[in-house]
Amino acid sequence: MLARPAPGGVLPAAVAQWKKFLELARRQRLEADVFESHVSILSSKFRLPPMFIAELVLAPPRPDSYMLDNRIPQYLDVLLKLRLLDTPSVLRVLYKYSTLHKHAPPTAAATASNSTESDKAKAGANGHTGKSQGENARRRWGGSYSSDELVFFRLHRFISKGPGIRSGREAVDVVRIVARWMTLFADVAAAFSRDAFGGLVSLQTKNEVDLTRQAFSLLVVAMCENQLVVNTLRKPGAKGKDSAFKERGVLRLTGCCSGAKRAFKEFGELHSVDDADGAAGYCGVSRTVQIDDAGEYRAG
Q1: Which pLDDT value is given to residue 44?
Q2: What pTM was computed for the model?
């Protein structure tokens, strides 16, 4: 039976109980329905913010961890359904530990941005063990391509067929982290384009990354077609919230995201890369649209 946390140590006690439960669930290979019944009891006694739970579920347990346990995507479905996780938290933590970073050295801005909320959650999920942010930032999955792909597919389904984005705040957060993912894919594409003869990256790795990118493209389409996202980003109050969306007045859109042309108009550029021709094509981006001073679209 789970003990109740002491008043002075609620968060560390809750983290410890969640860690213990998740390790037990993986070790005993709990089915999704059994996991759901147990996690419902656990969450009623030990509440944690979504970012903390995402860190516990999605972070590599050891420096040499290769990919997610194949039970984790099923557990994610349960946690999302019970609203113990949300879409922005899953995308942030997945981004933080993705193997894709190994092919695209992080920029200073990306490193700083990724060391805020997610790192605070990591510190809490570690039970305040004293691990440095630098140590956490260096830990990545060894080969998370298929894991990332599977999570993208599940989030696509969650957004397109369920309440995957529940509020305007979540809508903005999802767009922000999706923009960072798009930049990461573009940076990886640019790096691969410089390795034309496969001397640094194997063909198998490139194929795996391409499959991951395709799954991500479906997620982007679901986001673009989500009415809450479209309505939220069209509000005057959403203007200028994040300069990452407004650089150089260029909007790159994936094919079939007709609604995004209206929604992202308020934000300007969704992502930008130096090697635009090769990287934009690799990211599933079908066109570049210039936004002129009058706010009109002009195909580029």
Answers
A1: 94
A2: 0.73
